[in-house]
Amino acid sequence: MSKHEGATPANGSPGGEQRLSRASVQRFSLYLRHLERWNDEGLQVVSSSQLGDALGINDAQVRKDLAYLGNIGQPGIGYHLPDLVAALRRCLGIDRPWPAVLVGVGNLARALLRYRGFQRQGFTFVALIDADPKKIGQVVDGLTVQSPDKLPEVLAKTKAELAVIAVPGDAAQGVADLLVSAGVRGILNFAPTVLRVPPAVSLVSVDLAVQLEQLAFLVHLGQDEP
Amino acid sequence: MSKHEGATPANGSPGGEQRLSRASVQRFSLYLRHLERWNDEGLQVVSSSQLGDALGINDAQVRKDLAYLGNIGQPGIGYHLPDLVAALRRCLGIDRPWPAVLVGVGNLARALLRYRGFQRQGFTFVALIDADPKKIGQVVDGLTVQSPDKLPEVLAKTKAELAVIAVPGDAAQGVADLLVSAGVRGILNFAPTVLRVPPAVSLVSVDLAVQLEQLAFLVHLGQDEP
Fold it and tell me: Scanning A26, A28, A118, B183, which has the fewest C-beta atoms within 10 Å of its C-beta?
């Protein structure tokens, strides 16, 4: 599970009329993941039921979600796949690149740097930050690790609006405060702690232990069944 | 965002009367995270509004969720913290250890092995599996990397019911099939792909790019606001 905090999509929806729920936005990401694969495979047209079947979501929900994107489907035919992909990317705000800084250069950071899914969606790490003097100056995946006190100039130079926090839990709030004062607009937090940021800064937290707990719960339930 | 698939909590709830929604289970994990911290800090009693405030959830929802655990709160006083923590752990099925195997020994695996949040919740990696002949036999964090064809005997010996998949997307389904045939009961998947497993096996997928997309969407919305 992840926890989404900070700016809520109360208004400012791309269409301007309707509020998108968090759950819809998450489904949009999943729709996009499937549609891009089908697009790569050369599929031209897709129906709401195909998409629903692939994701285990009912048709009606899929149609309702996609209606948010405007009149892009044709009744009885379906959706033109490249148009649908473009509309979803525009709606999610990923029809442009998102440079991001990565704070905390440990194993998780190294995994994230090589995670192909990010690049594909336009997320590029443009700077690495670490407080450890032994790491500062090292080159990792073509980027030189810089000290946290360089953050304001790094953000100014790279135009990065997003930051990913991959430091231990006890260091995360300090890093978040630095990022906020340096002008970052969104933070993806992997540290197993609850961060406080001002409302103007968006925060998404990924607590990996919560994910494993969800799994344990599902297996535990299964065991209770006769 | 994560996607939860496989066994649904249709019945078999610990109390047996009521169905817990996925959203409730996710909130339970977040409640637990906060309560354990307060417990460590020596707090003895907590109210639903304290918990709600800390998580940005309204009181009524917190009380409704916690009522599922039975009569453990006292009106006007609150919840005895150690009892509440124990009840949540029991409900989530993490009042006992969960040995797990980790498949794919790259940077993500190394990060997961050192992720303190897992150990704390009773999740222990008891075996490392990788198909790369260069990695087989290496010792990482005290565990020897073993070949995938050893999976059945590894599961039998370690009694591991859970597996974490940290291999590239194109290898993930093959690994999932191996794990299923070796008798694993739950899979946490970090590979950026959609896996198919039989209904008897629980699956939780963590798509890191989806998380970053959610963040981009929130920041994007903020930009649309006047």
Answer: B183
